[in-house]
Every structure is written in structure tokens, then in C-alpha cells.
């Protein structure tokens, strides 16, 4: 992917650094499939073959959807540069075709996960606080990684996070979760923050005092999910999915969940209404005359 296209994604499309990096990986994969063929000679049928090839590569549906989106943007850029006349990728359809219902962790298993870090673990207070924040706020791993000390307001019960497109939002933090975070701040974080003053402003720190990375957060969630006996495919995003689904199951308004999740469109939030069938059954049983 050329430097000019990277600059286009950042300056013209205003995409976040993580999204740009993901699109770069998508296009490297596309170039591998393309081989010696020229982009100008491609037809719609061949582009459909590319999507089929992605399936054979065993990519997740969400990754395939993103790969199509990144290709659409790349072809649009080539149009602007006068390299292509038509954007044939637009004919592949919407990425919604490949959307799948997210995995959700049952509430009782959430409890097991949140208490999985033990006192024998070297940074168990930090790890418990991390898991609490992920589930209590529904924030993405990248958003939690980027939380700074002045973004956290324990007494008021909220954190301020920066989401996709550098959009900021307020995410509520319940008292129970706030107490776990305070324990980490009082008893464990001070000795971590002394090891690397450059990253001392961030909330979650590694053993070397650096900001806890998105990859490290992913690994910690995997570690404690395995200990709690949860599906090995669980990820930080599973906690985000569970946050939304459990809110809807408890009767939360869809618009409120959309705001807390930081979704630009309510259509994105509506996927969680397909996950929680128990609430629909309860409403039917309560109000339908034949229930």
C-alpha cells in the first residue's frame, strides 16, 4: 500500500491508526491473491472469486466484511487518481452479507471471569480492574488501552474514552467496578508508574510501566477466560458484546445502548436484539393473549 494511499486514509477519510493498519493488512492479502494480474483488467466475477478465496483462507465473516470495505476505499482512491474509471468492488454488495451474530458470555460465567485473577498472579489487582472496566463500560480493547488517569472519574462513576474516528464518549462505571479500580490505583499502580514516567499518565500499565497494549489486553482476557472455563474463542470484544446484550436483556433502551457503545448508526446496535431471544419470549408471555 503506497504512502500516498495511507495519507489519503488518514487525512481525507479521517480513519484511526488501528483502522489504517487493518486496511494495510487487507490490501497486502489482496495483492497476494492478485499475483501477476493487473487491477485494470479485473472483472466483477474475478472480484467475487477473491471473496471466495478469503473464505478458503478461513477468515472470520467480520474480517471478510472489512476486507471488502478496504478494497472499496482503495478502488475509490484509484478512481480519484485517474487509474480506474469504475469501482467494480461496489457491485459486490454490502458488508452486512457477512455479518455474524456476536458471541456472548453468560452472566454467571462473567462472574467467574471477573474473579479469575488470583492473589498468586503478579498483577492480579490490575487484571481484575481491567476485566471490570472492559465489561462495565463496553469499551473496546484499544479504548481501554488508551485510557488516561484524567479520563477516569471514580466518584462520579464514569470514564471518558476515545473511540473510532477520534470520537469521545462517556461510559458509565458502576460503583462495584469503581471500587475494584480504586484498589488497583491505591495498592498496585504506584509501583508500576515509577518504572516508566513517559507512560505514567495511562491508567493500565505493564510490568515495565509502559501503557498496556491492545495485544496484552487480548492475551490477559484469553488467559483468564481459560481459567474460568469459558470458550477459548473469547476476546475483549466478547465482553463488549456481552455488555450490550446483558443491558438489552435487562430492559435498557436500544438508543441508550447505542450511545454507550459509541455506534454511529443504530443499525449496528440492532444486531444485539437478535442475540437476546429470552427478552422477546418474556414480552410475548406477558402480553400475548395466547401465551
Distance between the termini: 58 Å
CATH class type of the largest domain: Mainly Alpha
Q: What is the strand tally?
A: 3
CATH fold description of the largest domain: hpI Integrase, Chain A
Q: Low-confidence parts lasting 5 or more residues at pLDDT below 50?
A: none
The CATH superfamily of the largest domain appears as Intergrase catalytic core
Mean pLDDT metric: 86
Rg of Cα set? 22 Å
Subcellular location: Cytoplasm
Main location: cytoplasm
Domain Core-binding (CB): 1-79
InterPro entries: CB (IPR044068), DNA_brk_join_enz (IPR011010), Integrase-like_cat_sf (IPR013762), Integrase_catalytic (IPR002104), Integrase_recombinase_N (IPR010998), Integrase_SAM-like_N (IPR004107), Recomb_XerD (IPR011932), Tyrosine_recombinase_XerC/XerD (IPR023009)
